[in-house]
Amino acid sequence: MRRALLAITGLAASTTALVVFKGSPGATQVAQNLPTAQPVNPTAPGADPSADPAAPGTDPAGEVATPSKTADAPVSPKPGKTTARPSGTKTTTKAPSTPRTTKAAQPTTRRVTGNGFDNEYGYVQVQIVVSGNRIVEAVALSLPSGGESDIHSGDVRDRYDGSGGEVVQKQNANLNTVSGATETSNSYKQSLRSAIEQAF
């Protein structure tokens, strides 16, 4: 502080001397020989940095201010990164379950055809209609024909066929033999039995 005051006093004295000598002859020559005052370097060794509060880079407390790059800049997470989940919480994603495929429902009513049988009068084949576990109808697909066979085949058809015939009533092949059409009745029973075996 003392050195700064001495420097300022010396500078003022030099300025006064220059003004005085400027008005007299030869003052210019004298002024040229006078030593010029040098500014005081506040950062010289032993100098007090707080001597000149207006000096750039200093604050009133005497500390040199240095610009801070990231002191006040808010820190934000990098884009594309997610913040960590709090520990203890687990999130699990369940894979969508594949829908179950149900089998197509079997038709409740179905037709079953028995094996065909030959006798001395002709060919006999029977078909039954089944609903669930019951015979609901019987049909003779083929019976002997021609001459008296037409008559006997008609009697067999009337006794056994249809939804109200003996086949539906008994639900089996233990049928009564039609008189006069023994061979055709037996062949009918054989074909009916094979159809029942396939159906059940």
Structure description:
This protein is an alpha+beta fold and 200 residues long. The chain is 32% helix and 14% strand. Strands 1, 2, 3 and 4 form a four-stranded antiparallel β-sheet that branches. Strand 2 (117-119) and strand 3 (122-131) form a beta hairpin. Helix 1 packs antiparallel against helix 2. The relative contact order is 0.09. The model is unreliable at 26-32 and 51-71 (pLDDT under 50).
Tally of helical runs: 5
Helix content: 25-40%
How big is the Rg? 65 Å
Indicate the low-confidence ranges by residue numbers.
Answer: 26-32, 51-71
- What is the terminal-to-terminal distance? 124 Å
Question: Topology as H/E string?
Answer: HHEEEEHHH
Residue-averaged pLDDT: 73
Query: Biggest sheet, in brief?
Result: 4 strands, antiparallel
Number of strands: 4
Please describe the topology of this protein.
Layout: H1 2-23, H2 27-33, E1 109-113, E2 117-119, E3 122-131, E4 134-142, H3 148-160, H4 166-170, H5 182-199
Characterize this entry briefly:
The protein is α+β, with helices and mostly antiparallel strands and 200 residues long. Helix content is 32%, strand content 14%.
Provide keyphrases for this structure.
four-stranded antiparallel sheet, 200 residues, 5 helices, alpha+beta
